[in-house]
Design a protein that fits this description.
43 strands; four-stranded antiparallel beta sheet; 4 domains; Topoisomerase, domain 3; 18 helices; Topoisomerase II, domain 5; Gyrase A, domain 2; alpha+beta; 837 residues
């Protein structure tokens, strides 16, 4: 015996055997488990569940049965696999949030969009839905092939007749070996319209077909952004569709708070997991501004409420939620299905055509079945008619015959009847001999003859068969069609970082040793003239805050260095810190050279040719260059102005080509001239002389005059004054200038000048990081040759280093105001500047 077994052993290479066996296994999984059939859109497990429920007569009009019974019937007759796997499939076919058109009607707990599992199968009940009956209709008419089940005790259908186009309307998800199917659901009305269009015009092109079917229509609704990817999977069978939750921003009736309300979520997104993710992002401070998160969903529908803090724009929070959570997902479409038992990726038109071909075969086989049955019945009725027409003779033969066989033989020979006709005559009841029964028989025969003619016409008339398919589809649409749930919107671009950041004003501070930070303007409270201020930045003993200005988070900032170079940065790229935080070294944000320091800043919204950058150096040279010349700086910076040895850039301002320029010096002089005196030059040029300085004097600042304001002058010891700009006579550039302020021992030297109006507010910062914010109207307007008043009480060893002006639209009370209308500190708040356009 052992010798015989050894003789049957065939040595093979294990890699060859593994390759062959794994391929066989792969095809078995693909064909028999994971991938739907293109004709009925079902996987074998789904098809077998529907067949088992049909066997149990669980039609829509009958009572439901326990799911345990259905699962047992399916496993016992058709699908010898685990009961939980079968029950999971059955539950999926019940869930309205999983299938666009559920094929089973359930009673009990079949799970939820929160990911709750279905109740045990011993509790839940189910029956076929009306849609499922359309899938099974005419199955008894030999419309599809049957095959033996796993133990050959019964036959099961290889495919269902499927009047309902389940593959396109319900979609399918299946993971095979080396391939996967992921077909989205579509709207029945649109699918039927597309099928009708293909029937009417088999050569229809894709653009015209796409007019009938918009795209996916998911059970959970939501919004699809972008038609291009939809068209791509229509064409190739593959694509990626961006799906976003439907969310609205509701304003509270009382107050100005806003609430984000989510009413629809993307397909296959777990609502509970989504809420947990949002809560996690809030805890980790990755999303700020959310004060409350509530799940208000009930039997009427899904509703998640997200309350937003009053000072945070709700649309920014919503964009962050789209970016960081499953409120926006990508549905990867792979229209893979079995065609003649082989997996193929299909285009939309191919899917429709295969369905039409299947329905055509069903119609042909159904018609042939009806024709065979009608001809069989007509043949019998024809024999009965002959018997009734010769009723006396038939009765005589029957009375004379010794038995049934003899009577049958005589009837066959005398009236040329078939055995079927003779058997029907012999089985006929005497009741059929009445006049009424004779009339009914004649009417039946006439109807059968007409039916046979009609059925033969169908079999011989291709256009008529296609019209029948179309009419059946339209009837299906009229009975089961519903409105689209998923809205399709035009292409949406990817979120930029600005979509996720609120557009709000920030205070930017830079220390002498090069540390930078940003923080909200309302961090600083408004004080009266002569107040002590609050700490604005913590600095080392040898460091001090040298520059301060205000700009929106979405603003571009041009950084001009003392060496005449220009760098580019967005405000939101500057790290945000607390009021006392030191900030981040600016060399980590900008690639500054050794010894290079920031001298001036220009917040810019857009780069255009209608504005100019006016620059001034310490030695009083000025240069004007068109703004657009700075629109594409390199990371390593670009030349802004050519600097002579020993000189350095101290300020840069934006102009519109028609402004007056005021330059102030450290020793208290000032000059006013029109910018037309300075011609437009290229970037890498030195410029021309703006003011004639004495040997011990330097320029400290420049003002571009735009408003009917006053000139504010601030000295290093905390004193300042306002003077009418008209008090400074208009001269040509390169003059000596006139007295601006007395630089007495009390005042010290001039630190900064600004153009201001009464409604402005002033922000002053000292070398030790103390900041004060006060209304400009508290600083009285006086003449040029005066000392001014105390603006800030500077402590011993401290001094003022910079000044910024704030324009306020509205005041709430004495210590707080609305800073929503605040503009930047570079005098760019006037109509026409890029910052405010």
């Amino acid at each position: 015996m052992a010798v015989e077994q050894r003789d049957h052993i065939e040595p093979v290479y294990i890699e060859d055997e593994m390759r062959v066996s794994y391929l066989d296994y792969s095809m078995s999984v693909i064909v028999s488990r994971a991938i739907p059939d293109v004709r009925d859109g079902l996987k074998p497990s789904q098809r077998r569940i529907l067949t088992a429920m049909r066997d149990l007569n669980l039609t829509p009009g009958r009572p439901t049965r326990k799911c345990a019974k259905i699962v047992g019937q399916t496993i016992g007759d058709y699908h010898p696999h685990g009961d939980l796997a079968v029950y999971d499939t059955l539950s999926h076919m019940v869930q309205s949030f999983s299938m666009r058109y559920p094929q089973i009607t359930g009673q009990g707990n079949f799970g939820s969009v929160d990911g709750d599992p279905p109740g045990a199968m011993r509790y839940t009940e189910a029956r076929l839905s009306r849609i499922a009956m359309e899938m099974l209709e005419d199955i008894e008419k030999n419309t599809v092939d049957f095959m033996p089940n796993y133990d050959e005790s019964k036959d099961e259908p290889t495919v269902l007749p499927a009047k309902f186009p389940s593959l396109l309307c319900n979609g399918s998800l299946g993971i095979g070996v080396g391939m996967a199917a992921n077909l989205p659901s579509h709207n029945l009305r649109e699918v039927v319209d597309a099928i009708a269009a293909v029937i009417d015009r088999p050569d229809i092109d894709l653009p015209e077909l796409a007019r009938h079917i918009q795209g996916p229509d998911f059970p959970t609704g939501a919004i699809i952004h972008g038609r291009r990817e939809i068209y791509e999977y229509f064409r190739t069978g593959r694509g990626k569709v961006k799906v976003r939750a439907r969310a609205n921003i509701e304003k509270h009736q009382k107050g100005d708070k806003e609430t984000i309300v989510i009413t629809e979520i993307p397909y296959q997104v777990n609502k509970s997991s989504l809420i947990e993710k949002i809560a996690e992002l809030v805890r980790d401070k990755k999303i700020q501004g959310i004060t409350d998160l509530r799940d208000e969903s009930d039997r009427d529908g899904l509703r998640v409420a997200i309350e937003v803090r009053r000072d945070v724009p709700a649309h920014i929070v919503l964009n962050q939620l789209y970016k960081m959570t499953q409120m926006e997902t990508t549905f990867g479409v792979i229209m893979l299905a079995l065609v003649d038992g082989r997996p193929r990726v299909l285009s939309l038109k191919e899917c429709i055509q295969h369905f039409i071909d299947h329905r055509h075969e069903v119609v042909v086989r159904r018609t042939q079945f009806d024709l065979d049955r009608a001809e069989h019945r007509a043949h019998i009725v024809e024999g009965l008619r002959i018997a009734l027409q010769n009723v006396d003779r038939v009765i005589a033969i029957l009375r004379a015959a010794a038995d049934g066989d003899e009577a049958a033989s005589i009837l066959t020979g005398e009236f040329n009847l078939s055995q079927l006709q003779v058997d029907a005559i012999l089985d006929m009841r005497l009741q059929r001999l009445t006049g009424m029964e004779r009339t009914k028989l004649e009417e039946e025969y006439t109807g059968l003859v007409a039916q046979i003619g009609d059925l033969r016409d169908i079999l011989g008339n291709q256009p008529r068969r296609m019209q029948i398919i179309k009419d059946e589809m339209i009837d299906l649409k009229n009975r089961f069609g519903d409105d689209r749930r998923t809205q399709i919107m035009d292409e949406s671009e990817e979120f930029s970082i600005e979509d996720l950041i609120a557009d709000e004003d920030m205070v930017i501070t830079i220390s002498h040793t090069g540390y930078i930070k940003r923080l909200r303007v309302d961090t600083y409270r408004r004080q009266g003239r002569g107040g002590k201020g609050v700490t604005g930045m913590t600095t080392k003993e040898e460091d001090f805050v040298e520059h301060l200005f205000i700009a929106s988070t979405h603003t571009y900032i041009l950084f001009f260095t003392n060496r005449g170079k220009c760098y580019w940065l967005k405000v939101y790229e500057i790290p945000e810190g607390g009021r006392a935080a030191r900030g981040k070294a600016i060399v980590n944000l900008l690639e500054l050279e050794q010894g290079e320091k920031i001298a001036a800043f220009l917040p810019i919204r857009e780069f255009d040719d209608q504005h100019y950058v006016m620059m001034i150096t310490r030695e009083g040279n000025v240069k004007k260059t068109v703004l657009s010349a700075y629109g594409n700086p390199r990371r390593t910076g670009i030349a802004a102005i050519a600097i002579r040895e020993g000189d350095e850039l101290i300020d840069a301002r934006l102009t519109d080509g028609n402004n007056d320029i005021v330059i102030a010096t450290r020793n208290g002089l000032a000059i006013r001239f029109h910018e037309s005196d300075v011609r437009d030059m290229g970037r890498d040029t030195q410029g021309v002389r703006g003011i004639n300085l004495s040997d011990d004097d330097i320029a400290v600042g420049m003002v571009v005059v735009r408003r009917d304001g006053t000139l504010l002058c601030v000295t290093e010891n905390g004193f300042g004054k306002r003077t009418e700009i008209g008090d400074y006579r208009l001269t040509r550039r390169a003059a000596k200038g006139v007295i601006n302020v007395k630089t007495s021992e009390r005042n010290g030297q001039v630190v900064s000048i600004r153009e201001v109006v009464d409604d402005d507010e002033l922000m002053i910062i000292t070398a030790k990081g103390v900041v004060i914010r006060l209304p400009i109207r508290q600083v009285r307007t006086i003449g040029r040759n005066t000392q001014g008043v105390r603006l800030i009480n500077v402590s011993e060893g401290d001094k003022v280093v910079d000044v910024a002006r704030i324009a306020v639209q509205e005041e709430d009370d004495e210590t707080q105001e609305d800073v929503g209308g605040m503009l930047d500190a570079q005098d760019m708040e006037d109509t026409g500047s890029p910052e405010t356009e």
